Amino acid sequence: MLTHLSIKNYALIESLAVNFKDQLSIITGETGAGKSILLGALGLVLGKRAESSTLKDSLQKCIIEGQFSISKYNLETFFEQNDIDFEAETIIRREILPSGKSRAFINDTPTTLQVLNNLSEKLIDVHSQHQTMQLSDASFQFQILDALENNFAKIESYKRGLTLYTKLVKELNALKQEQAKEKEQYEYNLHLFEELQSAKLKEGEQEEIEQTLDKLNNIEEIKINLSEAQSMAVNEEIGLQSMLNALTNNFNKISPFSSDYKELYERVLSLKIEFDDITSEIEDANENVSFDGSELEKLNDRLQLIYNLQKKHVVDSVKSLLELQQTLSVKVDAVQNSSTIIKEKENEVAEVAKKIDVLANKIFEKRVKAIPVLVRKLEKMLSNLGMENTRFKFDIQHSTSYFKNGKDELQLLISANKGANFGELKKVASGGELSRIMLSVKSILSTYLKLPTIIFDEIDTGVSGDVSQKMADIMQQMSKNMQVITITHLPQIAAKGQQHYKVYKQDISNNIVTQLKQLSESERITEIAEMLGGKNVTSTAIEHAKELLS
């Protein structure tokens, strides 16, 4: 509920502050007095775009504040999600700077216009003649039907399911696209993979082959040097082994005479033992040196295969070829297994679709059930508003398509005169009729939903007399469940308000400013009398005004 509004330096307003109460409040004033300015300022609080041209004094900033009592609106979660302190009496402030920049605050916390818009939708519904066209919007028509049957919990469940369904369908399409793309490369990738797999590569084998080939290609030189080394080691007369034996015997004979000789003996003996071992290995190596032409050819062929694969795949190691083989294996498996994966995803999509279809069917059934109830209520209410021959027909079809609020398609048709054919609402109903229909719809919704504050901006345009009286009765009835603020030119409606405010212009030192004040009982009588008979208030107009107020 809007409890307070203050405006500074906006359009024709220098400074204005007003308190609002619950139930029905009336705002009246002459044409051009500034009612649209008031709504414009309120629009800024609700998150509309601002311009520096709206400043009355272009050197000063404009400040607009709205205070709302929101303890019964269940908005704690909204405040928590947007990291804003929740206050039962919440204050929204907009500041427009001379530079044209604007700032928005909720309970003194800076916020964005998007957050402000989202919050304001839950606080105030400003209804103008332009918004009567909302009646032709199928989503609004669905909202009416869903309110009558309390469909909103099911619709929220459906929306969550639809979000999951959309996500899964997107994943399924991506898998199918990837499969189609991979299939184009499948045969080539399979050939490359099988070629590498058949090569049976082992990490480190290239270096081992290259080393073995180096040995085989130099076998003659190796044989010559090993034979010479063996001869130098074991020759009986001048061989190193014989000489070390003699040296060992010499030091063995003198080792008892000195610890120094003994140490030398032990060192020479150690050298002899090591050299005997080396000699034995030289003999073995010399005996095992052999040339195998077939082995050489086999190793050369193997190395050439590795070189060819490396050149083909532009890599320089067997390790890189093995990594490529693993990558190709994954790609080949992906295509070979993609049908199974896609089938599993299709089953997942079908399972979710089945669940949301059940919800959509229940939503449809409830909407069908709500239609005759809504039609009956609308036709009865409009009959009291001078549209006794108006008939409605809702054409609802359950489709195969998924929409954001179900699977239904809806068309509202109207016949405004007895015997007339049904046609689209916007083509059949006049502006005044649309206003009365919208008022009836809002009245019906107010008994089913916790609606925010509603502001009717001259919804009574095009009506008068007994119809305006009935419209006033409807607004007064609505105000028992919610705060209703009505801007009107009709005295019959103005007299129904619990509070009455007047917008007027005032000349202060040759400066025209817009003012707003709450009228006292006597001022209210005068205002309604002027609405009845003009500026020259007669005693008859006064009596008529008192009669309306009573």
Tell me the strand order in the biggest sheet.
Answer: 2-1-4-5-6-7
- CATH homologous superfamily (4th level) name of the domain at 1-123 and 452-519: P-loop containing nucleotide triphosphate hydrolases
Secondary structure: number of strands: 15
N/C terminus separation: 27 Å
Beta-strand residue percentage? 15-25%
Provide the CATH top-level class of the domain at 1-123 and 452-519: Alpha Beta
CATH architecture of the domain at 1-123 and 452-519: 3-Layer(aba) Sandwich
Q: Could you tell me the radius of gyration in angstroms?
A: 48 Å
Q: What quaternary form is this?
A: single chain
| Number of separate helices | 17
**Residue-averaged pLDDT, rounded?**
87
Sheet having the most strands: 6 strands, antiparallel
Function: May be involved in recombinational repair of damaged DNA.
Coiled coil: 165-229, 268-302
Family: Belongs to the RecN family.
Organism: Lutibacter agarilyticus
